[in-house]
Amino acid sequence: MSLTQVLPPSCTTPVTQAKGRYFSWWLVVFAAGWLAVLLVAFPHPTTLMQRHWPLILVGVGGAILGNATAVGGGLVFVPVMIVIYHLPAEAALKLALATQAFGMTSGAIAWLRRGVVPTEALSATAPALLIGATVGTVIVAPSSLLVKGIFGPASILIGLTTLLMLNRSGSRSGMPRRATFPLVLVTLGGGLLTGWIAIGVGEVVAAFLMVVYGLRIERCVGLGVVLLAIGSIYLTLLHQVIAHDIPWDMAIFTILGAVFGARSAPFLTSYLSPRTLKLGFAAIAIVDGLIFVVQSHLG
Predict the structure, then answer these.
(1) Burial class of 152 by CB neighbour count within 10 A (0 to 12, 13 to 18, 19+)
(2) What's the rounded Cα separation, in Å, for the pair 108 and 65?
(3) Which of 210, 232, 213, 226 is nearest to 265 (CA)?
(4) Which of 11, 69, 144, 159 is deepest in the core (most CB within 10 A)?
(5) Where are the alpha helices (H) located in the chain, listed in sequence order?
């Protein structure tokens, strides 16, 4: 069934949202599994913890930002890994994707439980996302020059775009029939961008639906988070199969923080106004991008 068949021409009826709660028993299971992996899969786990524990906080911050705005924690992870930890750009990209595979999935589960994600749109957007991500990883593979050349300007552009739609709150719960083909094209481009810099598809799709079709912000962000979770899982598996060089000794710590941080994002958005969320995100994206551009030129 295509997107045009399942989405109503126009819908302004409010969506009934399930009451969210932070705690789930699977978080306890995940934490226990995480500790077991750290102790068994890595040599000298105590030393590793002493060296990299601040990355847990980086994971929390990146996951909250990524899941509250759909842009992805890569907006935080990539610059931090390159600027502070001096990782090569490709390694920073792969760490960001691996972290998002867990963090965005955690957030996606929370968004789905709120009942605001237009899941009917996934049948059209998910295949387009995977095609774009494959092209941006296998055919036009990300290089250090490509990552550094695109990430800063893309971050700034995303922030400026958010400011431009500051006063667009949106009232639709569904999309018109004519939205299918443009949405597929936008998702295809977002998948390509995500393959290069770990961010893109979530914010691009969310911004497009908000600006062009006036979809409610929580519907836009929810769909963006789910798409980025799908893309991050797929790209992590792709990189692991192709090169086996994801820096798991660092990613394991950002993953722990991201899983727990991501759970709070959907609930945070229910207490903050759309305008406040957009302002905060835009400021972080623009400043982050400027710092990254300057650092890239100096380096």
Answers:
(1) buried
(2) 13
(3) 226
(4) 69
(5) 3-6, 25-41, 45-52, 54-69, 74-79, 89-114, 122-134, 144-164, 180-197, 201-213, 217-242, 248-271, 274-298
State both tokens at 165.
């739609």
Give per-residue pLDDT as tens, 4-56: 444 444 444 444 444 445 567 888 899 999 999 999 999 999 999 999 999 99
Residues 6+ apart with CB under 8 A from 247: 87, 91, 94, 95
Q: Which of 210, 202, 201 is nearest to 173 (CA)?
A: 210
Q: Which amino acid is at 266?
A: P
Nearest CA-CA partner of 267 in 106, 122, 30: 106
pTM: 0.83
Mean pLDDT of 170-195: 86
Partners of 215 in the β-ladder: 172
Distance CA 204, CA 183 (A): 10
